[in-house]
Amino acid sequence: MSSREVSFTTQLRRAGVVDSARAQQLIEEIADVSGFRFVDPALSLSYYADPDTGLLQLLRVCEAAQQAGVVQTVHDVLRSPAGRRLGVVLGGSVALGDFLVRRPDLVSDFLEWEDDDPVDEVDVRARLLEAVGADPGSTAPVATVIGDEGIVAMRVAYRRELLRVAAIDLMQSDPITVMPAVGAVLADLAGAALEAGLAIARAAEKDHALTRLAILGMGKCGARELNYVSDVDVIYAAEPAEGADEQASLRVATRLAAAAARACDRFAAEPPLWQVDANLRPEGKDGALVRGLSSHLAYYERWAQSWEFQALLKARPIAGDPEIGERYVQMLQPLVWSAVERENFVEAAQAMRRRVEQYVPANEADRQIKLGPGGLRDVEFTIQLLQLVHGRADESLRERSTLTALAALRAGGYVGRPEAAAMDRAYRQLRVWEHRLQLRKLSRTHLMPEQAEDRRILARASGFATVEYMDEVWHDIRRRVRAMHLEMFYRPILPVVARLSTGEASLDTAAARDRLSAVGFKDADAALRHIVALTGGVSRSAAIRQQLLPAMIGWFAEGPEPDAGLLAFRQLSEQLGSTQWFLKLLRDSGTAAERLARLLSTSGYVTKALLATAEQVRWLDSDEDLKPRPYERLWREADSILTRSDNPEQAITAMRGLRRRELARVAAADTLGLVNASAAAGAVTDTADMLIEGALRVAIHTVREEVGEEPPRLLVVAMGRYGGREMGYSSDADVQFIFEGGGERAGAHAQRLATVLRNLLQKVGPQPSLEIDADLRPEGRNGPLARSFESTVGYYARWSDPWEAQALLRARPCAGDPDLRARFVEAVSPVRYPEVLKDEALAQMRRLKARMEAERLPRGVDPRRHLKLGPGGLSDVEWTVQLLQLQHAHRIPELRTTETIAALDVAADAGLLDAEDAATLREAWTLATDLRGAIALRGRQGDPDVLPVDARELKVLAEIMGTGDTGPELDDRFVRAARHARAVCERVFFGWEEE
């Protein structure tokens, strides 16, 4: 083989030829038959998807043309720019090549087209009707070329148009741009074929004038996005001509419909076009082929299933009587757009999609362009469901075409811009692959090929340089489409919106005002003004809020203060402005939207927190994000802040902000019922521990800089409810400060250290403060703010009153030197856990408790409604448990805990209380704690320790607590629990039965 032959062989292989020797032979044979020689065979063949097959088909066409005496025509085409179009078609479609072998004279058509011709510029209906000798201008054309001859003429005319479409399509450098126009023309061609078939049928039916038959295209044909090869889904509707009998009309229409279908799909001299499928008609295969309009309407009003309305979304007249077709569509449109109001419509659509996936064979799932995960059906079902849910209120969404509907969903804010762009491109690309696969043999296939050679041909046909790149795009599209489908198709908000009435979903002014009043808004006019402000204008944000508000109004109304909730939502929306993540989160997560509405209409505390830091709305989509953070995690974040910052002000501000954030997290979880009040109190306590530990580090740094030496070691001891890990959202932190070491000026430096720490926590600033109360220290307010370790231990051992030993039961080191912590606990143990509780100490405790009940209750407050100091309230339970600790903790180490319920459980296990009494105290303390937490979360003015009288407010507290009680039921439950707890307190603490 010469070097020139080697070079030519290499060029052919680079052009995509597999068998270069065979290709060279075919080139020579083509030249021998047609007299045409390629100037640059490698360049010409590089445009062919399958050069080897394309050359063979070209030779067959030349030989057929020679036999038909039109070989010169083929020669002329090959010499002109049309030659490339012919070659590209022959290299991309074996079936169209076979058609030209049967009809070589039609090669001349290639001379009439240009590469940049619009694919949809031809009136295909007129061309196919003219092919059978029918008048395109007639509303009921009748063929003059009839029978088998007419059928062949129609099919040849159809395939001539298919050649034109394929030639323009295959010549595109970027085929996804022309894909929608290709699908539209293919649908028009299908309609034209049925129109021509109907014209042929009329010629054979003497009574055709008795009926007015319309053929409705469904599915892809109705949406004008048909494939090259696809079943054409249709529905037939007929009405009698003026003066005709209805039954006779239906009989004639049935014969015409069946004949029109046979013209397209029965075997004849020219192969069938595609299958005509009428199984979407009422009752499917078991139903009448043709029905009158009233019969269709009656079926859809009474018997149709939800999926049938989804199918009607695409219905379009494609052949037959246009007026009857339009009447059919207009008649059923109201039913289509109200179908979403049917019970469980959305859930049924979602279940149907899952069933379709289950029917895909496992060995095909990863190759399915149409039905598999991430395929065309994921796109189509997603868009159709969004249309049906929102389209009844937004008429801009009432589009048949998938891509046009997607554009409308994007414009209306129902789908985000990035997602819409990604879905649009993915859908186009999937359809291009589907088209290229079907063109090759004009066969109905939706599977990515398995064989390497077939994949190589597909890659070349669809514009990819390599198979590897095509595979990468294929996998990326499937992954992205699947993710978008799961996110949008299963949006939790869709079933909620679907359950609204049409008036509710549309937010029509009058309907909205009536609904607002009906569901509990006190000032419907003010609420309507908020809605108008939120949804007015043409911005995407307004459009998305228009989708959200119909559902959110219902959720606001479920809260105790819907007016306040809607106002807060407006404030939050205005604060966030055009921030897209906020509205996208609410649109795509029904959980987040419902939770936000509930929080804003229920908890003033949480509303204030969210308005202060709107970013926290992100948590509402996830239970994990709302879960309170453990102390270790909080401290790691605080330690990171302290390590990074050299500025004490910035560091303490950041840590106070961290505490504020975590209080908002706990409060939101508490309001939503994700944690109980006891767990919330522990989490709130953790935030205080973190902040005080961090503030102590800042204070040490500050004092060290001030005095020029190392200050003494400082210990912060939590007292009271803080020490018991039972803090509320607005609780002060009861503490005492203890120091050790530090030289001669240790006392002064320790006072300064404690003062700086307290000021850091209490200073007015952009983040909430934590009030420090040190009145429980030795000698109370008369004693020094910080006391030495030795002096503190000595005081408790020699001078403390019994009540101070009782207060030490709650003492819990919360910040400072680890060694001091351990030594403090050991040193005060004999004081708070005495071997014997002396009688005088017990008597003093009882006198002090009685005095508190008489003197500390606020004036004018019903003692029975005071959660803390009232009979059976928190104080009764806690003092009873603390008495048991003072009496028995010396010999029962498990009682040595600062937490009330933990100590109560140990007391019951140890037999210090019988099980019934322990359960009574636990119920009363837990209920009172839950009520205090719920009152704090309400965020209303008033004493947080007093149970409201108003039944409606009590109902709100019950909702926050998740008890399901009515207001009176909750009131009765607390009064009963408190009464029983008081009885136990009188017997165990006061010992009244003994007396």
TrEMBL record:
CDD domains: NT_GlnE_GlnD_like. Residues 85-327, 594-825 form the Glutamate-ammonia ligase adenylyltransferase repeated domain. Keywords: ATP-binding, Magnesium, Multifunctional enzyme, Nucleotide-binding, Nucleotidyltransferase, Transferase. It is an enzyme of class 2 (transferase). InterPro entries: GlnE, GlnE_rpt_dom, NT_sf, PII_UdlTrfase/GS_AdlTrfase. Residues 351-488, 861-987 form the PII-uridylyltransferase/Glutamine-synthetase adenylyltransferase domain. One of its GO terms (molecular function) is [glutamine synthetase]-adenylyl-L-tyrosine phosphorylase activity. Its EC number is 2.7.7.42, 2.7.7.89. NCBIfam families: PRK14109.1. This is Bifunctional [glutamine synthetase] adenylyltransferase/[glutamine synthetase]-adenylyl-L-tyrosine phosphorylase.
